[in-house]
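Because discrete structure vocabularies remain unfamiliar, it helps to consider an illustrative case, giving the amino acid sequence and backbone structure tokens:
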Amino acid sequence: HTMYVNVDRVLPGEYISIPFVSFASFCSSLSRNRYWTYHWEPDESLTLDTAASRLHELLQERLGAIRSDENLSPTMMLSGGVDSAGLLAEANQIGWNIPAITLVPDDTAYSELNAVKRICERLGTGCLQVPVDADMLAANLDEGHAVLEQPVVHTIALLHMEIYRRAAAAGHNAFICGEAADTLFGYDRFAKYQQVWDHSSPLVDPLIRLIARISNHSKFVLWSRLTSPNWREFVCQGRAHFSATELADLMKVWQPCNDERMGILENARGSALEAASRYYFETFIQDCRIFIALGRAAGMEPILPYTSAAVRDFALALPAMLKFGRGRGKLLLKHAMDDSLPDGIAWARKRSGEQPLGRWLRENQSLERRVAGAVRNSLVDRFFNPESASRLHSEHSSGTDHSVLLWQMLSLDIWMRECLGKRT
């Protein structure tokens, strides 16, 4: 399930059994088993309004249970987007004026502070602002990788470590966050391409394969194997939009890997949207463990209301068209929260997690040295074309933004050097 030789991913709801007899048979007798099975049975009778009413009930019940736990003193992680703002609004509906906490990047172009202020003003709650910059990211690099024991793809995870420290210093022992709403209620990445999600289109299956594969794997591993300029632009930037003709041309050179989860797409009944929704759930629900592991390492208890059993099962029963519609993802969630939030917040473009990473990797001496070291002396050079890696680093230093690729290379290098190196 990964692009790496002899490296497999344990999927959500599964465990690996290793019957140890001798070292000779150790690696040849692994078996994979499921300990949790979900039921994917969309209820086509649900409408936007009836589903929104039920969602309000479920979230308020879950937040009410959290509020009644006298051992918890939580704060709400507020990004400015609909996921966390919606939870804050639901808490407000049950009379819980829970304090919020938010990240404030050192670049206003990436800041959601204005949205956060509008939300807090509308709901009458206070918010602790936590400034973040490149120095903070650099300071958390090694600790974050050591705690997670995996490469950290998203910088926001490492920056959240400062949130946990500040929350603990303010007397809180738990945090509530909106993680998993994307997974359960429909991610915008799939909604962008609705115009070609039509049963009559020959692009349906290949397009989902393309988006799912590029969404799920480290982009930097792909680039050295690509020859088409359009391919390279898509992989490096991740946000390029292609016409149907351009997508058809790309598919001619696309070679899907042997991935068992592709059976979800190939064998799914119903619409391509439903297949995409199910694939995304299978693939990404495990990302919640990042917030859980980092939070607990800082002495904070993470609480993810969207992953409660009742909300999760409700989301699994939603028809695809309540998740993806009007060219947007999370259609139901945005519809349900629109009236409770300031104008434009629920339907705003997803931006939470974006940081000025390009400038940070270029201007911060500590980060720049570590990137340069990973390019020159990487333990993972088997994955890279060294000449091209050096070219990317040089171009980035000159102003071209290759921050995503360089960050992922640095992160993988730290993981292999600091985490795997200690075991060998």
User: Anything to note?
Assistant: The longest strand covers residues 100-105. The chain has a mean pLDDT of 77. DSSP finds 21 helices and nine strands in the chain.
